[in-house]
Structure formats: C-alpha cells, structure tokens
Amino acid sequence: MVRRIWLYPLSFLGGLSFAAVFLVHKLDLLRPENHGLTLTQILTHISAAEAGQIMGGVGEVIAAILGIVITVASIVVQLAANRYTPRITDMFVRDRTNLAVMAFFVLSAVFSLWVNFSIREGESNGMSQPFVPYYGVLATMALLSMSLLMMAPYFAYVFDFLEPDNVVGRIKAGAVARALQNRRLGQEDDRSVDERRMLALSSLEQLADIALNAIEQKDKGIASKTVDSIGQMVVAYVPHKADLDPRWFQIQGELARDADFVSMNAEALNKISNTRTWLEYKALRQLLLVYRESLATMPDLITRVAIDTRYIGQAAIGAGDRDALQVVVKFFNTYMRRALNTKDVAAAYNVLNQYRYLAEELLKSGWSKEVVAIAQHFKYYAQMAQPIGLSFLTETVAFDLCEVNEVAYLLKSPARDELLRIFLEVDKEAEVEQQESSLRGVRKAQVKLATYYLQKGESSLARKIYRDMRDERPDRLRSIRSEMLAVTSNEFWEINDRGGVFEYMEPERRQYIHRFFEWFPPSVLRPPIREEEHTQD
Fold first, then answer.
1. Spatial contact of 336 and 288, defined as CB atoms under 8 Å apart
2. CA distance linking residue 168 with residue 189, whole number of Å
3. Calpha distance 308→94 (Å, rounded)
4. Mind telling me which residue stretches traverse the membrane in this protein (predicted)?
5. Helix/strand/coil for 120
6. How far is CA 284 from the centre of its chain?
7. Distance (Å, rounded) from C-alpha 265 to C-alpha 267?
8. Which segments of 118-219 does DSSP mark as H helices, in order?
9. Which of 209, 283, 330, 452 is 20 to 30 A (C-alpha) from 78?
C-alpha cells in the first residue's frame, strides 16, 4: 500500500514537476538578455526584499493547503461514519499516517511563518546589514512543494482508509493483536489487562455495528465481509488461549459492566469465567444480532453467519477446547429456535446444513459424546417443527441424521448405535393423522440409511430399521419404494444450496431398495386388487 499510494504518485508527480521547471528555466536562460546567468545563480542570489515577497505568499499557500486537507478529510470521514459506524472517526483521528501528514502540514506552516519573520532589510531595522535566511527560504520552498505534491496521495490514502473492506480488516487485525498480546506474569497490571479486554470487545461491537448498518443499507458484500471478520478473529484467537494471562479470562472491572454481561447472574458469569469463553460468547452474540436482523431483511446472510459459527466450532475442536465448543452448540441451537419461532424454513434449512457439518467434524475428531448431544438437539427440533406445520424441516433433520449415521459407521465411532437409536426416534412424536402422513420423508431417510448398511454388509443394522418400519401402512410403504426408485438424478430443478436431492442414491446402492423391501410380507407390498378385477376373477 505504501508504494501504491505514496511512493509511486509522489515520485511521478515530483519528477514531472521538477523536470518541467528545469526545462522551462533552461529555455529562459537561452534568451539573449539572460546570457551569462546560470540556474545556480538564480537560486542562490536572493535579496531581502525578494525573500520577503516570496515568503509572504508561501505561508498563506501552506495554510490554505492545510485548511483544504482538513475540510475534505472531515467531510469524507463524517459521511463514512454515518454510513458504517461512528467509531470510524476515532480510528481515523488515531491513525498514525493521518497524524503524520497533518503534523507535516502544520510544521510546514509554522516553519514558513518564522522564516518570513526572520527576514531583515538592514539599516532600516537598525542592523548593519540585511539578513536573508537563504537556507530557510529554500527549505520553505521544498516544504511547500512537498505539501502540494502530497495532496493527491493523501486524498487517495483517505479514500483507501475508509474503504469498507479495509476498515473491517483493520478492526479485525487490531482486535486479534490486543487479544493475543502476551506478556509475562507480573509485567502487566490489572488495569492494563482490563483495557485490553475492553479494546478487543469494542472491536467486536464495531464490526457488528458495520454489519447491521450494511444490512440496513442492503449492502450484502460489506455485511458478509464483516460477519466473516468476526468469525476469523475468533478462529485466530482460540488456538492461543493457553498462552494468555489467566486474568484475561476473568469477567471483572469494565468488562463486567458490558451490556451482555451486566444482566447475567453471578452463577452464569462465574461459569463463563471458569470456562474461559467470554470472548467467544461475545463474538457469537454479535453474530446472533446479525442473524436476527437478517431473518427479515437479508436472508442470504444467514448462511454466512452459520458458516462462520461452524468455523469457530472447528477451531475449538482443533484446540481441544470443549467449553468453547459448547458455546458454539448453544448458539447453533439459538439460531434454530429463532428460525422455528418465525417459521423461517429457509433459515433453519441452511443452519441445519452447517450444524451437520460440525457434527461430522466432531465424529472425525472422536468427540462421540458431543455428537450424540447434537443428534438429540436435531431430534428435538424435528419434533418441534412437526406440530407447527414445518414438516419439511423434520424431513431435513432426518436426512441430515442419515448422513451423520453414515459417517459414524464409516469412522467406526463408538456413538454409532446411539446415533441410530436417536435417528429412529425422530418421528415418534407424530400422533395426529395429518402429522403422521407428512412424515414420509423421515421414512425415506430411514430407507436410505438401510440401503447404506446393506451395501456395507451390515444386515443386522438394516434389520433395526426394518423392525421400526414393519408396522407402516402397506400403501405408504409401496409409495415410498416407488418414489425412491424414481429418483435417478441428483440435479434438483430449483436453486438448492445443498447441491443435491435428499432421496438420490448411486445406482449400485439404489438396487438395495429392493432387497430391503423384500423383508416385508409380499401381501404388504403387492398392489391392491381393484374391485372390478376381483369381480371378473
């Protein structure tokens, strides 16, 4: 960025300006009346009157440049602060490059003022000879030239500084640096630790403000970038928690007066302190704010929130931080509850997809207990969705649990049998006829898992699914078999974030549908004889 904004423009503009000055002076020196003069003589011979005349205008120009720069920068920063977050103003004022440029303009103006003041014409001022600050005049001219040359690059820097992606990246980098600032015990007092905590927390809130304002402005790109930055910040933080000062994790001082913590009781605060998860909790709270706002105004952003929440969970798995994972699971459950309360099928559908990916990562890492807990949550939300008319979510949960069971079998997870038991209980709460008839998708998911077991040679596991289904009505069994055999393509005819069809199976696996249904009595699966055919017989 230094080369692109400062070095290249300054080199080009400065070189072009001085080349033009040199060329013009050379042309003037070629005129007959200037014969014998050199450029060095012109620059080195300055009378007191000439110096005063020159310096009288230079100071005014430098002051005018300073006024223009401050005015333009103030307007642009204020517009950006109104659109994204008011804290941009504080960031801009504290920026080192901005302070350095402003300081250069101010010092140039003050320097030219005192050089102009020191010019003396001699006897009229009680001095025996005139005084011309030759080097001061040249330095002032150099400062004025640099000030003029810096205006264009500086405005480019201001616009680059206020670019939304750069603002978000700068906040994220600063928050990570403050969180991971590691000092040996005893070298940092409690007040300094508390200040660092508040700076990191403030950065999270700044990112959330930018995301919420972007949602209000219908700016999906900035909102997505900001959500990703919150997730990336936590992902970068989690692996290094073991190296941090234990005082960092305590909710006390200014941190305890934060809006998200002040309303908690002492037991809840102690739990967060003991599990060392206040920053993960705070970051996920910001994602939850974005999630709530997105439900009504920008549904596409919900997937980004769920993805970044999963990334935080994966970082916790990689670091072996079970407490941080529990926080992630709680927020996934909160996302699902919000979606069910608003009956937002699309939101729940996308959240479930990322939730399932997290469960699969847990299986790969051998965290069987946590996977079983997530499967229980899946079953709960499936049964909650059924009575309120969201049967599609129940079917989605069933197919997601089907995939989780397949991964558990493939990885030889100790949770395999327990996951299968939970999977077969997804539809147990359906008691009303209308509810029961809408659970065909659950049965299809169970048939799909049975074919997987049969393909792997696990007839005993497939038999468990058969025993759960053997009391189904014959007409339902016949239609389920026919519909699953009819699915021969994995291309859905509408836009589908998951990229496939739930019922689809590869041809070599689909043939096991026939084998599974052979276990049912032939009379159950034989089409009923119509009354006319029975009379003819």
1. no
2. 30
3. 30
4. 6-24, 61-81, 101-119, 131-157
5. strand
6. 11
7. 6
8. 134-161, 164-179, 190-216
9. 283
